[in-house]
Specification:
Elements lengths: L3 H8 L9 H15 L4 E10 L2 E11 L2 E10 L3 E5 L2 E5 L5 H21 L4 E8 L25 E6 L7 H4 L6 E8 L2 E5 L9 E8 L1 H11 L1
Parallel strand pairs: 3-6
Antiparallel strand pairs: 1-2, 2-3, 4-5, 6-10, 7-8, 9-10
């Protein structure tokens, strides 16, 4: 089965920008369908893991090999016309919450991959907000554990700083615990505009049983 990193360069030739996360989800699912003609592609599919159901953004299955995708599309304000189509992206900001939610996706995928035979998971984040991929000098912020700048190593338990407000943590109080070790890598996606926030980049965290085995061997 093709890697998602192979499909993104194909997708960008058709869609350099999306109106919303749902728009991105449908476009990527359709491109997967085009690239993997014999695969079953489902959106928002509930997958049972132990005694709970986890809803997966895109679930692909081909010849008994499932692939689970969780997507995030985080935007800063941008207005641009592509052909006859006008795109007016919202300023979402709240990057600390966005990072937490993305890493929560990775944790969910680890749970699914551990339970489902031959399953591979992908957490994909596409954004025009450089705050996600840029490393800042201040390492003592309340979201320091959740940073996903280029080259960041993700592993173990990640949690809010001691001074994080209750409003920030609402419905996100629990630490995120990762079974595996990941290195964050950002790649260029598109530049539909030359103005500020006119360039998009993406990162993909790939989750597999092989990674878990490698992590276990690393700590022995």
């Amino acid at each position: 089965m093709k890697e998602i990193s192979e499909i993104m360069p194909v997708l960008v030739k058709k869609r350099s920008i999306f109106h919303s996360e749902a728009d991105f989800q449908h476009a990527l699912a359709w491109e997967i369908h085009q690239e993997l003609a014999n695969a079953s592609v489902r959106l928002e599919l509930p997958i049972q893991v132990k005694n709970q159901y986890l809803h997966i953004d895109i679930w692909v299955e081909q010849q008994g090999e499932p692939m689970a995708l969780e997507l995030k599309y985080k935007t800063r304000s941008l207005s641009v016309r592509i052909g006859n189509e006008q795109f007016s992206l919202k300023d979402q900001s709240a990057q600390d919450i966005g990072k937490y939610d993305f890493l929560k996706d990775v944790q969910r995928l680890e749970q699914i991959v551990a339970e489902k035979r031959n399953c591979i998971g992908y957490a994909v984040l596409l954004t025009n907000d450089s705050a996600y991929w840029t490393r800042t000098a201040n390492q003592n912020t309340n979201d320091a554990d959740f940073r996903i700048y280029d080259g960041r190593i993700l592993e173990g338990q990640l949690q809010w700083g001691a001074n994080a407000s209750e409003g920030t943590k609402r419905n996100r109080e629990q630490p995120i615990t990762l079974r595996n070790r990941y290195v964050v890598k950002w790649e260029d996606y598109s530049q539909p505009s030359t103005v500020k926030y006119g360039a998009f980049r993406f990162c993909i965290i790939r989750v597999s049983k092989e990674q878990e085995a490698q992590t276990v061997r690393r700590w022995r």
